[in-house]
Amino acid sequence: MPKEMGLHDHLAELRRLLIPPVILAALITVLYATSDDLVSWMAWWIEIYEDSSGGELSVYAPHDWYVLKWSAAILIGVAFAHPFLCFNLWKFVEPGLIESERKTVSALFVAISVLLPITVLAVVLASPSIASTAVSADQISGVRPAIDSMGIALMAVSLSWISVVLILLTGLLCVVKVTIPPGEVRDGIRIRLHVIFAGILFLILSNGFEGMRIIIIISIVIISESISRLVPTQFEKSS
Fold first, then answer.
1. What is the largest CA-CA distance in the chain?
2. Is the pTM of this model over 0.85?
3. Which end of the chain is more exposed for a tag (fewer CB within 10 A), N or C?
4. What is the C-alpha separation between 129 and 114, in angstroms, rounded?
5. How is the chain split into domains, by residue range?
């Protein structure tokens, strides 16, 4: 008869399943940041930007290029490793689900695994057009509009990270809800997740979001909590 696992055993198992996707994301990040493929990919994005805005991408400080390059590489690493992460999380929660829950939770994981890469790609593709449209929609007579192209690139990276944090946080909150009974332990883990992801967002958002960091963080908390509450669990049914 298999030994019943306690909370610490479950957390150790979860940590074991999270390590491979993290390592994979790190390896993909390093490989892309040091290869010509990333430069080619960014050149493709620059062409989209130039076609939308009619301007050129300008880098005014040496560190700007490295920030943009590594930010793009990290996003690619996270996007490619994300389906593997979702699969491992599914393996972790699946044994604790009853039959009626498996269909709903499996559909949730499939949707999340596909949603993150698609969202990141959509944000990157749409950012030049959004910025160009926003500037041309509200012009002042006699003033020639100019777009800070580096700012547009950093905006695309920041919007992508907001999407990544929202999707990852929502998925982890759903896992916590399904696997841990209601109580102080579950509430403590949820609070820690919110604090960790809020800190990540606070650090990675570009200066263009200076006055909106708190609003964005609060919005992500509300959205992720609202979505995670829709997931049915056996704990709710037994109570």
1. 81
2. no
3. N
4. 24
5. 7-135+147-231
